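Q: Convert this sequence to structure tokens.
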Amino acid sequence: MRIVFMGSSEFACPALKALLASGKDVITGVVCQPDRPQGRHLLVRACPVKQTALGAGLPVLTPENVNSDGTLEAIRLLQPDLIVVVAYGQILARQLLEIPPEGIINIHASLLPKYRGAAPVQWAIANGEKVTGVTALYVNEKMDAGDIIQQREVEIAADDTGGTLAARLAREGADLLIEVLDDVRMGRARRRPQNEAEATYAPKLKKSDGKINWTQTAIEIHNRVRGFNPWPGSYCIEPREGKLLKVLRTRCEDGFGPPGQVLDCSEDGLLVATGGGALRLLELQPEGGRPMTCGVYLRGHAIRAGDMFA
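A:
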């Protein structure tokens, strides 16, 4: 088949590489987001998928609006039999959906209809899920609501972060894509409508989502710290210096006190009261500094039992 691949983030790269490695299809073009300012110094860089595509010698389109007349015509000229979408970042209009005769297939990082939306990996961990997965589905005009072709379950480990789980799901999604394309090629791909009554959503994350709310329970905060690592990250305000302090790793423990109160300071870390139980802060990153164990941080910062985190 002639395939146009649409993707932008690092999550999509294993799928693109798997397509290239399989050699069963011709990738006639790649569509991804335009170059954007990135990093602390806001240098303009190409997205990971564009870098991968250019490295493989593939033609690349980077439209601001994939549904514009000019972009639609450019995609038609690529003559795709099928379009594959993985973590692209734009909603596809009906005119685009009608271009490939075999339709558009998306690889989504959840067990749909749960966790539709932009951040399914992070919210699955933050909400304390034990199992997630990847779904191959046909794209329609509604967000992540098309017919399901096939799914694979993936367990969420107790020490998974948003970063580690996303990497594992990306590899699983790439394998699923190759399997599904074999079914499409043979005309045996099945379609199963989603149950709308079971749909849940995973909205795009904002930096403010990382602000720790100490009135939540220890396990709720712990899961958000895991899920929001590496982005947007979890943070609080240092009680004595008033500076932002990133929290990278935690552990739930017994303890009681007003939410946000420091219960114990030791080489093992800070123990902070929450709305239910206590949370041991194990690894921190001070504003403008490097990641370090909480014990190392405490050697240079005079936090005491009784101090209150904001």
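Residues 224 and 254 are 19 Å apart (CA to CA).
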